[in-house]
Amino acid sequence: MRDNTTIVSFDDEPLMLVDPSDNIIGFEEKLNAHKGRGKLHRAFSIFLFNDMGEVLLQRRSELKPLWPGYWSNTCCSHPRRGETLEQATRRRLREELNLSAKLTFLFKFEYQAQFKNVGSEHELCSVFIGHVNGRPEPSYNASEIQDCQWLDSDEVSGWLDSELIGTTPWFAMEWERLRADFESALKLSA
């Protein structure tokens, strides 16, 4: 049986600091990179879709310092030193959800979002999508995720507009771009 509580994210892991053109300009411990307004660092987001028109969403663990308990896209994280985005996305899907899928890069964007007085995300984020058949049940890592749900793609906008459902800011920005510019890619079968 898989251990669903393995710690896979560390405050002292070095993140890749980048310039707006995605050139590495240094490294900073994750905790420090998220202090104040944050330092621009490389990140990625993944959306998994199935052949029924659903997307897998995750509710972030209450242990997360930024946006704990908020709903977000399937998976998001940072590549590690010496790791390509392809390697990092495969690793993180496995670590967080015990899932795998062929992933396709769609776009990259920069954003900065403040979470109360705790810290912020300032990321140059590469967005990937993947497709699976059926509704695979993730075996999620409780140190990262407290819940998962397959949601009909047409319902996601309602979640993002709801004051009763907390969602992460990057999820909202990415979803808007996915629907505006990549609608046909979301409907591909696995």
Automatic annotation (TrEMBL):
It catalyses: isopentenyl diphosphate = dimethylallyl diphosphate. InterPro entries: Idi_bact, IsopentenylPP_isomerase_typ1, NUDIX_hydrolase-like_dom_sf, NUDIX_hydrolase_dom. It is found in: Cytoplasm. The active site is at residues 76, 123. One of its GO terms (molecular function) is isopentenyl-diphosphate delta-isomerase activity. Its cofactor is Mn(2+); Mg(2+). Mn(2+) binds at residues 34, 41, 78, 121, 123. Pathway: Isoprenoid biosynthesis; dimethylallyl diphosphate biosynthesis; dimethylallyl diphosphate from isopentenyl diphosphate: step 1/1. Its main location: cytoplasm. It is an enzyme of class 5 (isomerase). Its EC number is 5.3.3.2. Mg(2+) binds at residue 96. Residues 39-173 form the Nudix hydrolase domain. Binds 1 Mn(2+) ion per subunit. Gene3D superfamilies: Nucleoside Triphosphate Pyrophosphohydrolase (3.90.79.10). It comes from the Bacteria. Keywords: Cytoplasm, Isomerase, Isoprene biosynthesis, Magnesium, Manganese, Metal-binding. Belongs to the IPP isomerase type 1 family. Catalyzes the 1,3-allylic rearrangement of the homoallylic substrate isopentenyl (IPP) to its highly electrophilic allylic isomer, dimethylallyl diphosphate (DMAPP). This is Isopentenyl-diphosphate Delta-isomerase.
